[in-house]
Amino acid sequence: MEHINLPAAGWYAAPHANGEQRYWDGTAWHEPAEAEPTTPFMKKPVTRRTGAFVAGAALVLGLIVGGVSGGAGTQSEVAALKAQVSGLQSDVAEAQTAAEESVETLATATTASDAMTKERDSARARVAELEAAATAAQAELDARAATITDLQGKVAAKDSAPPVVEVAAPETQKSVYYKNCTAAREAGAAPVRRGDPGYASHLDRDGDGIGCE
């Protein structure tokens, strides 16, 4: 028979007691009432990992002993270990499901974050575009306001200046000469009075101021 190194004596999670602490004396399990710890090591229960190792070693020992004696204790220990394995598998499955859900949630959150980032960048670009348009519009308004101010100044200057009266130049009387009264009558100017165009003394022989009577 192959030699097996069993754990040292101490308190471990016993597979036949659903993982409860039992005392292992190096060869067999003892109930709490049967155990009489006499050393510091016996007074301090060990971790579940060590207990699992002890359970595995005890299972191997039980299988060896069971192979010889066929006792019922080995079957109960095997059943307990199977129950522990089943529980661990269930825990692993739940942890795997939770991890997958966490990954999916993280992916969804990342996608939403990327979408929000794109929307934020688009909104910032739109704001910058509107600000540029507002700046250009303000510059145009300022230019128009300056033009209006200049025109108002010119209008005010004209309103305050004295009115300019345009005086028409007197028409220059054309030089008219009638050789005799016959010519004056033919021109329709007879009688010709003193001051009228064409008046001359040779047309007013009596000197009364009226020629070609």
Automatic annotation (TrEMBL):
This is Excalibur calcium-binding domain-containing protein. It comes from Microbacterium testaceum (strain StLB037). Residues 202-213 have a biased composition (Basic and acidic residues). It comes from the Bacteria. Keywords: Coiled coil, Membrane, Transmembrane, Transmembrane helix. Residues 186-213 are annotated as: Disordered. It holds the Pfam family DUF2510. The chain crosses the membrane at residues 52-72.
